[in-house]
What we know:
The chain has helices at 26-33, 46-52, 98-105, 125-139, 154-159; strands at residues 16-20, 65-71, 77-84, 108-116, 144-149, 167-172, 176-181, 186-191, 197-199, 208-210, 223-224, 229-230. By secondary structure, it is of the alpha+beta class. The chain has two domains: 1-142, Gcn5-related N-acetyltransferase (GNAT) (Aminopeptidase, 3-Layer(aba) Sandwich); 143-231, no CATH class. Strands 1-2-3-4-5-8 form a six-stranded mixed sheet, sandwiched between helices. A hairpin with a 3-residue loop joins strand 6 and strand 7. The longest helix is centred in the middle third of the chain and has 15 residues, at 125-139. Residues 1-12 have low confidence and may be disordered. It holds the Pfam family Acetyltransf_7. This is GNAT family N-acetyltransferase. It comes from Streptomyces kaniharaensis. Residues 16-183 form the N-acetyltransferase domain.
Amino acid sequence: MAPLPDPRPSTGSAAFTVRDARPADTDTFMPVIALADPLDPDPFGLARDVLASPPMPPLSHDRSLALVAEDNETGTLIGALLGGPPRWLFTHPGIDRLPLLERLVHRMGMINGIAVHPDHRRRGVAAALLGAAEQRFTQARYGLMTVNHEPALDDFYRHHGYTIGDALLVHLPQQRLIGMTTDDTRMSAKPLHPAVRLADVSGAPHRVITGLLPGASLPDDAVFDGTRLQY
Length: 231
C-alpha cells in the first residue's frame, strides 16, 4: 500500500513519510515503540511477531497495524505506532460467545502505543501517525478507536477528538453492557462511524458506547438499572 499523505510539517522541520512497517524495520521499530512504555523491560514484544508476519489486509498485518514515520532527508525511523484489537476483549467474562467476540474484534480498534524519537518531537509526527491509523481503521470498516494512555496525554487525545475517561462501557445486543476500567490510566474513545456515539445514560457510571453492533443502538430514554439497560 502506498504511503499515506503526511500533514504539513511544522515550520523549519524536514518532511517525513508515514508508511506500513516492514520486517526490515524491526531493529529500529522496537526501541522507538518502547519509548511509549519505558518502565516495561520488554514492551510491545508482540510487535516482533507482527512485523515478522506477511502484509495482509484489512490493516497492515491482518487485524494488527504497525506504522512508522520516516524522515525524508535521512531515511531514519523517527516514530512508530502499534495498534490492533483491544486485548481485554479476549478475556472479558461478558463476551461468552465466539461470534460476539469476532464481531467486536472487527469493529473496535485500539492504539497500543505511539512513540516519537526525542530528537524529532514537536514536528507533528505523533499526530500524523494517529491520523494515519484512524484512516486505516476507518477504511477497514471499524466503528470505534480506543486508546489506553497516561493522564499526561489527555490534552493530546482530546485535541484529536477523543472522549477522555477512566472506563469503557460498550452497549451489546439484548440490552447488555460490558465494561473495562483501569486503575491509573485513561480509557479513551473516538467514534469512526456516524452510527457510533458515546451516550449519556441515566444510572450508568460512565458514558455508553452505542451503535457499534447491529441491534445495539440506544434510544434517548434508555436507563441503566445497575444490571442491564432498560428501554
